[in-house]
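Side project, low priority. Logging it here so it doesn't get lost.
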Amino acid sequence: MKQQHTKFSAVELAKAGVIAALYTALTVLVYPLAFGGMQVRLSEMLTVLPAYMPSAVPGLTVGCFLSNLIGLSMGANPAGAWDLLFGTAATGLAAWLTYLLRRVRIKGLPILATLPPVVLNAFIVGTELYLVYGGLPWWLHVTWVALGQFISCTVGGTVIAAALSRTNLTK
């Protein structure tokens, strides 16, 4: 029996590149909302994509890194260089967990797969913001980030998932 290897083809690399570019463009487009105490990144709607294609995992990770780097260079990212490491790691891990939850569906949609970026970013980015801003209690920073992530990832991601489920774009 022949062993099957999963290859990351040129097509998959192109998909990852497009996702990274979309994530970065959507973040920079509304950068005042993308950084700060309560973040509502339009780009986080794309975090549902690993439930449809594995190439979204590196695409989202690279897109987040580039977005955080641009935010840092513009002076818009209050978490600074720490966000390059921890924010990107949170997005990469959340994308991988979303991929693992891809088969869990509610009415045909990967609703539970939208939750890893909400939870991980709430705690990781919320902690970053607490360390940067202080003032407010830690749990409040976590709650604000969770709320922004829920709006983008779960509400926005479910809209994208519903649109993808009605089309053949993922095939």
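Brief comment: Residues 138-165 form the longest helix (28 residues).
Revisit when time allows.
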